[in-house]
Design brief:
Oligomer: single chain
CATH class: Alpha Beta
Strand content: 15-25%
Number of domains: 1
Low-confidence stretches: none
Shape: globular
Structural class: alpha+beta
Largest sheet: 6 strands, antiparallel
Strand order of the largest sheet: 1-2-3-4-6-5
Number of strands: 6
Number of helices: 5
Helix content: 40-55%
């Protein structure tokens, strides 16, 4: 259903607060139909907040956004769809394993999508988030170095 919404009525995301309300309704639906998913998302949030320099907040298209030094590196929607920014080489390498997919909107980028479907997926999701954290941290550090030495 989520991919149908994104593909067919994705333009609605531009209506102020629509995506956040939609995601909140998904969270309510998950509370009744798959409450363990909300625990898994909480586990991801706890994992990310242990990473130095990270913050979490509300994503502009619904869900929870994960940031490092103010720069987004991942977000999770209330249906368990985790979107993560990786470098393109790592993305291609991980895609050959078959566990992740191209981002549901940004196909030709470093963004990937991964669905949390069971408790075991939480460990792999944390692994992906750690890789994304390392990537964004390294990228931010190299950007600061370029600014300092320019």
């Amino acid at each position: 259903m989520f991919s149908f919404i994104v593909k067919r009525v994705g333009f609605l995301k531009d209506i102020p607060l629509f995506a956040i309300i939609f995601d909140s309704l998904m969270k309510l639906w998950m509370f009744f139909t798959k409450p363990e998913l909300l625990d898994w998302i909480d586990n991801l949030e706890e994992n990310v907040t242990r990473m130095p320099g990270t913050t979490i907040g509300i994503h502009k298209y619904g869900g929870t956004e994960f940031n490092y030094m103010g720069k987004e590196f991942a977000h999770v929607h209330s249906n368990g769809l985790l979107d993560i920014l990786l470098n393109k080489e790592l993305k291609q390498s991980l895609m050959t394993e078959g566990k992740i997919k191209d981002h549901h909107v940004f196909k030709n980028s470093g963004w990937i999508s991964f669905y949390l479907q069971n408790k075991q997926d939480v460990g792999y999701a944390c692994y992906l988030l750690n890789r994304a954290y390392d990537y964004i941290k390294q990228k931010q550090t190299s950007n600061k170095s370029r600014i300092l030495y320019s």
